Amino acid sequence: MNQSQTNATQLNFRGYDTKGFFDELIDEHDKPRLGAELLLRKFEELPDEEILQRQQMAERSLFQMGITFNVYGDNQGVEKIFPFDLVPRIIASEEWNRLERGLKQRIRALNLFIDDIYHDQKIIKDKVVPEVMLKSAKSFREQCIGINPPAGIWCHITGTDLVRDKDGTIYVLEDNLRCPSGVSYVLQNRFIMKRSFPWLFDASNVRPVLDYPGRLFQLLEYLAPEGIESPTVAVLTPGVFNSAYYEHSFLAQQMGVELVEGRDLVIHDGYVCMRTTKGFQRVDVLYRRIDDDFIDPKAFREDSMLGVPGLMEAYRNGRIALANAPGTGIADDKVIYAYVEKLIKYYLNEDAIIPNVPTYVCYDDKEREYVLANLDKLVVKAANEAGGYGMLIGPHASEDERRKFADLIQENPRNYIAQPTLSLSRIPTIVEDKFEGRHVDLRPYILYGEDIFVLPGGLTRVALKKGSLVVNSSQGGGSKDTWVIGSSPQQSQSQQQS
C-alpha cells in the first residue's frame, strides 16, 4: 500500500503480513490486487473509530435481524449469531468468468453421473468408477433406482466449496448437493454492506446477489408437474431446532411461500397436501431441507418423525417435485469426489476447468499405505461427515490423534480420503483494533433448472481463530461479503450497444 500515508492508529494495511500465503486483496508486493484498489484506498481513508463503529453496527444489525445458527451439543446455548467481518472479498470479473464456466461444467457432469447411477450405471460397467465404491456408499439410495425427476435434473441447488492454495491455484474442495446451506448469509451480508458502504457499491460495480430468492422460486416453479399453471411451492424444514432453521424461514419468506414441517403435510388421494384452516391444499413442489433418511418413514428410516409417510410414492408417480431430488447425496460422497475429474471427461469429453485437490483414496491399498506413512503431512476426511467433523489436520494434530485416525482408516478404509495440507488463501480481517490475515474458502451457489445460474460470488467463510484452517460456523468460523467486480459502467454500456 502507499507507504507515504501516515496513520496514528493500527487499522491500516501498512505492515500487513502476506508472507507465505496468497492474500485475496493484497499481493506479495503490498499492492492491491485487480479490482481491490478502490476498496483498500477507501478503507485507509476512514478513521479507525469509524471502521470499528461500522463493524459494531453491522454486528448489531445481524443480532436485531436474528441471523443465527444452532450448534448441536453446545452447552453454552443453542442459538448463536453468525460472526461477520466488514472487509469484503473481491473477485475480478475475469477470474469469476472462469470459475462460473467451471462450476457449470461440474454440475452438468455430476447430474449426468447421478442419473446414470440410478439407471444404466454405464460408468460402473466401463470401470471408470469401481463398483465397490457405489455399493458401499452410505448415500446411495436403492429406492431411487429408475426414478425420472422433472427434466432429468437431480441436483437443483448446489453449494460447491472452493479453496485457493499459496500459488494462487483455485481447487474444488468438495461438492454439497444434498441440502447446502449458507445462502441466506450471502444475502444478509450484502444487505448490511450496501447499507454500510453504498458509495463503494456504486463506484465498484459489484454484481448483484439479492435476486437469488426470485431465481430460486423460478427454478422451483419450473419443476412443477406438467399442466399446472400456478404451482404451489413450499419449503420443508425439520423444525426450529435444525442448525439452518433461520435460513429455511428466511428463504420461504423471501419467496413468498409456505414454510412447512412434515406434520403439516399429508398424502391425500395420492397427492401431497398441506393442512389448512380451509381443508387440504395440494403442494406441487417441495424445496426440502431434510436429508433423505428422514423425508419418508415408509421409504427410508421407519423411526423418522420429520418426514411425510408416502412422499416417495407420490414423487415416483410424478405428483410432486422435490428439490433436491432424493439420491443426490451419492455425488457429494467424499470418495466419489476423488473421481469427479474423470466423470467430467467421461460424460462431457472435457478436461476439468477447476481441478480437484489431489486426493488419496484409502480403499486403494497403495494409496492407503502412503496415507498411513504420511499422516503428519495430510488432511484426512471421513466420506460422509460435514461441518468440519470427522477430519484430521495432520500437521496440527497430536501423535495420539494421528494414531487414532490410523486405526479408523485401517478399520474402514472405504470411509476415508486424504489430501495434502493446502496453505489456504487469507484476507485482511478486523481483529480487535487491527487488520490480520485469516484463512478463507468460498461457497458459490448453483441453481440448475431451465438453465444453470451461478450466484456471483457466494459465501466467503473465514476462520476467525488465528492460524485455523477450519472455516465452518459450528467451529468458530464467520463470513464476509463477496464482491464480483463487473466491468465498469462505461464498458457495460458499450457492450449493450454492441
Brief write-up:
This protein folds into three domains: 1-140 and 150-207 and 332-357 and 442-498, no CATH class; 226-319, Rossmann fold (3-Layer(aba) Sandwich); 358-421, Dna Ligase, domain 1, CATH 3.30.1490. Helices cover 32% and strands 22% of the residues.
What is the spatial order of strands in the main beta sheet? 3-22-21-18-17
Computed CA radius of gyration, to the nearest angstrom: 23 Å
Mean pLDDT: 90
Number-wise, the strands total 22
- Overall structural class, as computed from helix and strand content, comes to alpha+beta
Sequence-ordered SSE layout with sheet pairings:
Elements: H1 37-45, H2 48-65, E1 68-70, E2 79-81, E3 84-92, H3 93-117, H4 122-125, H5 131-135, E4 157-164, E5 170-176, H6 183-196, H7 198-204, H8 212-222, E6 233-236, H9 245-255, E7 258-260, E8 265-268, E9 271-276, E10 279-282, E11 285-288, H10 292-295, H11 311-316, E12 321-323, H12 334-337, H13 340-348, E13 360-361, H14 365-373, E14 378-382, E15 391-393, H15 399-411, E16 416-420, E17 426-431, E18 434-443, E19 445-448, E20 452-454, E21 459-463, E22 477-485, H16 489-497
Parallel strand pairs: 3-22, 6-7, 6-11, 11-12
Antiparallel strand pairs: 1-2, 4-5, 4-19, 8-9, 9-10, 13-16, 14-15, 14-16, 17-18, 18-21, 19-20, 21-22
Helix pairs in contact: 2-6, 3-13, 6-7
Folded structure, characterized:
Residues 1-9 and 488-498 have low confidence and may be disordered. Helices cover 32% and strands 22% of the residues. The longest helix is centred in the N-terminal third of the chain and has 25 residues, at 93-117. It starts with 36 loop residues before the first helix and ends with a helix. α2 packs across α6, α3 packs across α13 (340-348) and α6 crosses α7 (198-204). The strands form 6 sheets. The protein has a 5-stranded mixed beta sheet with strand order 3-22-21-18-17. It contains 16 helices and 22 strands. With 498 residues, it is α+β, with helices and mostly antiparallel strands. It has 3 domains: 1-140 and 150-207 and 332-357 and 442-498, no CATH class; 226-319, 3-Layer(aba) Sandwich (Rossmann fold), CATH 3.40.50.11290; 358-421, Dna Ligase, domain 1 (2-Layer Sandwich), CATH 3.30.1490.270.
